[in-house]
Amino acid sequence: EVKRMFSAPFSFKGRIRRLEYFLSLLIFWFSLYLLFLISDELRLYDDWYSLFLIPSFWFIASQGARRCHDYTVSGWMQLIIFYNPFALIFARGNIGDNEYGSNPKGLNYN
Hints:
By secondary structure, the protein is mainly α. It is built from 3 helices and no strands.
């Protein structure tokens, strides 16, 4: 069973594919870019600015954790340099089900 992309983007549970993680990074960086433009234009600083940053960082942390789950490792591993975004984008996940859920591509050993 193939899962739909971005079905639960703020959840830390489950696994995601490389494409979904790559698109998540693009969305994250584009949202930060827009936030910097808007905050500079409207002179938003300090508290207001950080209120807009929290959902963006929650989104990318949850997507990174779910991508780590595809390797059968904890989401905390994304804080280690080896699991940088490039490794999470280009390395293949484990085939079959693991403790974090079923394979997002629907692939099994059979």
